[in-house]
Structure formats: C-alpha cells, structure tokens
Write a structure and sequence with these properties.
9 strands, 7 helices, alpha+beta, Peptide Methionine Sulfoxide Reductase, Chain A, single chain
Length: 206
C-alpha cells in the first residue's frame, strides 16, 4: 500500500512539473489596448484592475524574466527573473493608460524592494511595463510627481521596463478572489488591500 501511495505521489509530482504555462499574445482588437503591471500577488492585482471602469479583463501571468513557460512554483522560487503580473485589457476611450498607472500606484506600496505586504521575493517586486516611449514618459512623470509630493515616506523602487513575453498563469489563478472569497489569504490580504485601494483611487470604478 505504501509503495502504491509513493508511486502516485511521484506521478502527481511529475505531472505537476510538466504542467507548463504558455505564452499569451498581447495583440488586441482595433480600438482596444493592453497594459502590464507587477505589484505583488496577482490575485490582488487582478481584483483591483477589474474594478476599474473601462477595463475589459485582467489576466494573471508572469513576465520580466528569462525562463520560458514558467510554472507558478518556478516563479515563486525567485530563480526565473519573472514577477507575478497582470495584463490589463482596456478601452482607451473609457480609461487612459495614465489612469491605469494611477490605479497601479494607488493599490500597492511601491517603496518595498522585492516585497508587497506579507509576500517577499523578487517575484513580488513592483514593475510598471511600457510598450512605447509615450507610456514610459507617463510612468516616469508619475513617479516624479509622487516623489515631489512625498506621497510615500520612502523612495519609490518600482522598476520601469519594456513589455516582454507574457505567460498566462495556470487556470486556477484566474479570477481567484472572485472564485475563492472565503480563502484565508483572500480574506486577510486581498480584500483589505482592495478596500484600501477603493478609498485611495481617484478614478472611476465600475
């Protein structure tokens, strides 16, 4: 019996390791746009951005590193260079990239290197990605404005990087807060963080 259990445990481990993610195209339909942000746990980020008016969908995933088709556990080992991120698909006629950047900074503490709340490691670092120089300027200008206004007590450590290959996270991570409202982390971290965002963000919500 013990040998049988050991066999199935090993089989499960092998299957889990082989459950690689796939690269997701960030191509959008005419009139639509996409932005990518990393601000700690993507469960929280997805919940935040999907509440913003003009956002069609937020997809949890991984980017910023070099490992191809990384799994959740690989990214969590902090050895891939990737961070947990969200790809935010939106309607620029309803919400601008600048407003999404505002939401990004309103929903996190961008002054904690490789950490967001209880989550520690490079996979939880703060990164604002851009697809062109206009978006980069918007991000840079926002960081300067927040710094001058001394909104945060400590220096902002958010990385500003061009968008690279985006890997969609495993299916069970998508809409995690919505699908698991009573889960411990959701109750203790995700929902309080979301409630704080709602009070802080000046833009329009759904």
């Amino acid at each position: 019996m013990m040998k049988a259990l050991s066999y199935f445990a090993l089989l499960f481990f092998i299957i889990s390791c082989q459950a690689q993610t796939k690269q997701l195209s960030l191509q959008v339909k005419p009139g639509k746009a996409v932005a990518v942000f990393a601000e700690g746990c993507f469960w929280c980020s997805e919940h935040v951005f999907e509440a913003v008016y003009g956002v069609d969908e937020a997809v949890s995933g991984y980017t910023g590193g070099t490992t191809k088709n990384p799994t959740y556990h690989q990214v969590g080992s902090n050895q891939t260079g990737h961070a947990e991120v969200v790809a935010v698909f939106y309607d620029p006629k309803k919400v601008s990239f600048a407003q999404l950047v505002d939401a990004f900074f309103a929903s996190q503490d961008p002054t904690t290197p490789n950490q967001q709340g209880p989550d520690v490691g490079s996979s939880y670092r703060s990164i604002a990605f851009y697809s062109n120089l206009d978006e980069k300027k918007i991000i840079d200008d926002k960081i300067k404005a927040l710094t001058v206004a001394k909104v945060f007590r400590n220096p902002i450590v958010t990385e500003v990087k061009p968008i690279s290959a985006f890997y969609e996270a495993e299916a069970y991570h998508q809409d995690y807060v919505k699908n698991n409202p009573n889960q411990g982390y959701v109750q203790g971290v995700s929902i309080p963080r979301f409630n704080k965002f709602v009070k802080t963000y000046k833009g329009k919500l759904k």
